[in-house]
Design brief:
By secondary structure, the protein is of the alpha/beta class. Helices cover 41% and strands 17% of the residues. An eight-stranded mixed sheet has the order 1-3-2-4-5-6-15-12, with helices on both faces. Strands 8-7-9-10 form a four-stranded parallel sheet, with helices on both faces. Strands 11-16 form a two-stranded antiparallel ribbon. The longest helix has 20 residues, at 194-213. The structure holds beta-D-galactopyranose (GAL).
């Protein structure tokens, strides 16, 4: 039987309190997290609600510093445990070498399958080869890993995330009708994250015709991914670069109309820079991704315009059903989707993602959604992802 969203959220409530606090309270959820320097630990509590499968799943998340990964880790851990799997959950402080060690420990602990959200999509080669040599299947979770031992990829349609951001800008400025020109800047994500290029390209490809026609002007001239990228998606790094761009190109009173940010942690930095260093009085159109609580506040306050939301609870549902199919020896293809009763869209894609040249990685891709001040209650509160707090802002359902 599939778990309802409500039951997943209820469980997330208790788990994420631990995850977000980063403490080590000694219960099974906390011991499964080692972002604060503790070692990876098995948590076998799962057998409580589901009949034990006798199988162990290694779940490697990048970091607890970015809000969404706390949600992912908690949802995955809870769902696998409830389905009767033992879990080993690690967070690796955004350090690629630490993630290698964490995954090596998982292999040493005898996991039957790995679910990995890579910190650096190219740094896991040796340990992925080790997994392959031991016959341990690997699911690349959310971020693709550049190694042919990866069996499947579960993610959202990453390019679409960027096109949604670009399309939002087109609509907000009415670019097909307005004369312009409008001034725009870009901030992209971590170059080590395989997704970051997809997000950036999706947005850039959508807006490029307007840049080429002169309706949009990138005043800094910084349109190259590597120039606008943000190491490890860090808010401070995005803040620094935004301050430099504002000081160099906008201090003379040049109007800034739009800042396209690939995700919420970078949008937070850019918003801070605009608040402190932008001389203009207009509100700047700003994009983001993830629906982080601080950014939802900014959206309600009109500081950020939108975020692209990815329902990670659903990403965890797909991952669980995929793991079951793999470990049961069932055929894995589009029938996983048609045979499921998921209440959300997902596509089976065998042509978009490659772990090496010519080596396609079969992918299950979910559909992201645009959140604005106008629809956030309908899209986020009604389905139970967030609740409205006493101050009127959205907060995680764990309160
Ligand atoms: C991406 C992920 C985004 C965002 C970003 C920063 O890989 O798909 O949702 O969270 O990393 O962590």
């Amino acid at each position: 039987m599939k778990k309802t969203l409500a039951s997943i959220l209820a469980a997330f409530l208790s788990l994420s309190l631990v995850a977000c606090g980063g403490g080590n309270s000694g219960n099974s959820a906390a011991s499964g997290s080692n972002d604060q320097g503790g070692g990876a630990a098995s948590s076998a509590a799962g057998q409580a609600s589901g009949e034990s499968t006798g199988k162990k799943v290694g779940i490697a998340m990048p970091t607890q510093d970015l809000e969404r990964w706390n949600r992912d880790g908690a949802y995955l851990d809870e769902q696998f445990k409830a389905a009767g799997y033992e879990t080993v959950v690690t967070y690796s402080n955004n350090k690629a070498e630490q993630q290698v060690n964490d995954i090596q420990n998982m292999l040493a602990q005898g996991v039957d399958i790995l679910v990995v959200a890579a910190i650096d999509g190219e740094a896991l080669n040796t340990v992925m080869n080790d997994a392959g040599a031991e016959g341990i299947p690997v699911i690349a979770y959310d971020r693709l890993i550049m190694n042919d031992n990866v069996s499947y990829y579960v993610s959202f349609d990453n390019y679409t995330v960027g096109t949604l951001q670009g399309q939002y800008v087109i609509n907000a400025l009415d670019l097909n009708n307005a004369a312009g020109p409008f001034n725009i800047e870009f901030t992209a994500g971590d170059p080590a994250d395989n997704n970051a290029g997809y997000f950036f390209n999706g947005a850039m490809d959508t807006l490029k015709p307007f840049i080429d026609s002169g309706k949009l002007k990138v005043v800094s001239g910084q349109t190259d991914f590597n120039t606008v990228a943000t190491e490890q998606w860090q808010t401070d790094v995005a803040l620094d670069r935004a301050q430099n761009v504002l000081a160099s190109y906008y201090a003379d009173g040049t109007k800034l109309d739009v800042w396209v940010c690939s995700n919420d942690s970078t949008a937070l930095g850019v918003a801070q820079a605009i608040t402190s260093d932008y001389a203009g009085g207009n509100s700047v159109i700003m994009t983001g991704q993830d629906g982080d609580v601080a950014n939802l506040r900014n959206i309600k306050d009109g500081v950020q315009s939108m975020t692209v939301y990815k329902a990670v609870a659903n990403e965890a549902v797909v991952t669980l059903d995929l793991v079951k199919a793999i470990l049961d020896g069932s055929t894995v293809d589009n029938s996983l989707i048609t045979g499921s009763n998921w209440g959300f869209e997902c596509a089976y894609d065998t042509s978009s993602y490659f772990t090496s040249e010519g080596h396609n990685c079969p992918s299950f891709l979910l559909v992201p959604d645009v959140i604005t001040a106008d629809n956030m209650e309908e899209k986020l509160v009604t389905p139970g992802y967030y609740k409205v707090g006493a101050d009127g802002y959205l907060e995680a359902t764990n309160g």
